Model the fold of this input.
Amino acid sequence: MSGYAILAPALAECGRDEFSGELRVAGTPGGIFHLRDGRVVAVESPGAPGPEALLLRSGRVSGEQWAELVRESGGSRWPATALIAHGYAGSAQLRVVCMMALHDAAFAIAAGRVDGCERVAPAEPFAQVALGETVARLLQDTARRLAALALLPHPVHPDRERPVPVPVARDGRLTVLQHELLAHADGRRTARDLAFRIGRGVYTVTVEVARMLGDGLLVCAEPPAPIPVRALPEGHRLQQRTPPPPEPAPPPTRTALPRRKPGSFFRLRNGIPK
Amino acid sequence: MDHKALALEMRGLREQVTGITDTAVAAADGLLIAADTADSIDPEGLAALAAAGLGLARRTAEATARGTLRRTVTYGSHGCAAFYAVGDTALMVVLGDEGLDVDHLHRATQPALRRIDSILTDKAPEKASEGV
Done:
């Protein structure tokens, strides 16, 4: 069973309480829901690419440009104003990207394993969308996505299958997404890994992988290729690291050891001048 | 050295921590022992880079009185590369994408590093090369 059953009541309660802060979800992939007055304003998860990864992987913004935007925004985690000011994205476009990433991360958390949820209230919640999504709508959309995925003829879990392309002649009617998935599916990457690699939503990629498995374009590579382990060459033994050369000793200076005199111990300990 | 156990540890770590893309284990001098890496990665070169990177970081820690080196992490816009010392004799490389939770990675690697160290320093006779 997916983590939705544990996540949904905890998140719904945050909405009812008009909670502001973080709902930290332990599990795999787990993640953090950021809420303001009971509305979800950002969701972060290792299971789904955030807006930054989507913008960078799609090539809309380069790594150097992003670093400059962050510097310009005083080290902000999400330099939205600078992105718009430099024309990398329109404000409406950015809002759409953020909202898509928010729903996608909620799906990734709910589709995975949830061990527990914990509320934390920081001074100011991290927000990627100004108004935010209601908890009810977010949960409804997540449940719809989970159900839609389960109904596919070849249901795929974002973190489970590691497909490879089927080596057959294909007609030219493949979509851009299908081309990208065929190029990067190497038997090591899950749908989640592929989503990060090509900068697309994990739900979109998971559904497409499921369809391509059904259409015979992809096949699950089982079992994974063995990891080659090499025997060390003859005569080579694992040796301790060579310690760095010792620091040269300071030049010796002639210092006369203090002589004990009757009654001098008190002066030595307490520093009272003679 | 139990090759199967080493391969199991490496694969286990990749499956345990979301966002790990590749792992490799090498001797402290950079000689590659095992690599669970994509075709786009040159594991021999990566092992050599890790040995040099850890050496430089260790000397930096010493020169600046930062204590014992724990790890080095290189962050890029498309992910990160973490280098860990495995005991005194080897090193491990972990590559991750943008989604990798680096704090979670550090917590998950500690028990794995200890086990990999015991596997590598095991005095049992070498078995034929095999993987998992």
In short: Residues 43-63 of chain B form the longest helix (21 residues). The first strand of chain B starts at residue 20 and ends at 27.
